[in-house]
Amino acid sequence: MSKSERLFSRARRVIPSGINSPVRYYDPYPFFVSKADGSIIWDVDGNRYIDYCNGYGALLLGHRRKEILSHVLSQLKKGTLYCAPTQIEVELSELISKSLPSMQKTRLVNTGSEATMTAIRLARGFTKRKKIIKFEGCYHGAHDYVLVKAGSGAANIGLSVSDGSLEEVSKNTLVVQYNNSQELDSVLQREKDIACVIMEPVLANMGLVLPQKNFLNDVRKITSEHNILLIFDEVVTGFRMSMGGAQTYFSVKPDITTLGKALGNGFPIAAVGGRSEIMDMLSPGGKVYQASTFAGNPISVSAAIASVNTMNKLKSRLYPQLERSCMKLVSAIRDLASDMKIPHQINSISSMFQIFFTNMPVVDYSSAKAADTEKFTRLFRELLRNGVFVAPSQFETVFLSYAHSNENIRKTITAYEKSLKMVKQ
Ligand SMILES: Cc1ncc(COP(=O)(O)O)c(C=O)c1O
């Protein structure tokens, strides 16, 4: 019996399903991690994998990036939690505003879920309206406002609304098809009590689904016409697609933005920000309540400052290299699958991609759901056997990091070749 298997049976006795977040589970048991460095993650049995799960997109600079470690280590010597303001919180918010000018003011929080929960409460408080609109398959965290037709783990187990969520809450979350601005417009013609539209500008929780030409511009235009706030959930895309996130990449300006993941490059930190007049609604200055013991804690803040400064310093090489490596990988996988006559689609942008086993273009929740997920699971297992770790579900994305070397990319192509051959059988 492997060490991972033994640990999993121990874990199941004390941790529900043996894991601390549902997306980490796969049959018959997940590998347990011993350590990670750069682009590599090792399990407790000594197996090594090239990591493309990458903290579900958080590790843009790879594991244990030296500038971040040294910054955090020097902060550790000065204390871990003060629950009183610090200069570094101010510096981080200034850095964020500089990278994403639409975020004139930010509140720092710990997780993406907290950020989106606060963004929605702010939108309701600002507009004095009740309902919100989200898109099918977008995932904005594990809280009741947004756990309706959500992507990621919820799509994996086919949950439309979680047990335990109040109908009184979920009925105020209206759901519209991604890439369908006409549907959005007609819902807004009909419904009068809408506070905001929240969306992933690139849908990275349904596999990877790209916004079609003009979709983001149309959403911006429609929300403005109806006087409704637009929230870009950039927990995945912020700092990943560019220093200014997807909003800079596509030149579309939201009213509120949420950040997470790459902001702290592996440390738990997130942020919600937007126009000053909206952000000033937050308590104690305003009446929209938001609070957290660990918000703006100096460890996560120092990690985020080092991450943003490092990304800034590297940006002229960072983003082109990520994009080049991703394109190389994607075009090789596409050629392999085509040569093997495996029906497939690959969606990719910047440093993200996903393969779907289907003949139909994947443009929304239902076309992603129509892909052959069993084939994807077989691919996942084979990739793991061949030393490549991608997220275990079709409804996640493959993330590259700056730590992936050309050698890693070559080995990954070989792993996909061997794995696709097995998938075909
Ligand atoms: C787009 C998006 N928003 C929000 C979240 C929630 O973030 P967290 O898991 O940090 O609560 C996620 C997590 O995967 C996400 O991908």
Please explain how this structure is put together.
This protein is α/β, with parallel strands linked by helices. The chain folds into 2 domains: 171 residues, Aspartate Aminotransferase, domain 1 (Alpha-Beta Complex), CATH 3.90.1150.10; 245 residues, Aspartate Aminotransferase, domain 2 (3-Layer(aba) Sandwich), CATH 3.40.640. The chain is 40% helix and 15% strand. It is built from 14 helices and 14 strands. It has a 7-stranded mixed sheet with strand order 4-10-9-8-7-5-6, with helices on both faces. A 4-stranded mixed sheet has the order 1-2-3-13. A 3-stranded antiparallel sheet has the order 11-12-14, with helices on one face. Strand 1 and strand 2 form a beta hairpin. Helix 3 runs parallel beside helix 11, helix 11 crosses helix 14 and helix 13 packs across helix 14. The mean pLDDT is 96. The chain binds pyridoxal-5'-phosphate.
Which features does this protein show?
four-stranded mixed β-sheet; single chain; alpha/beta; binds pyridoxal-5'-phosphate; 14 strands; 425 residues
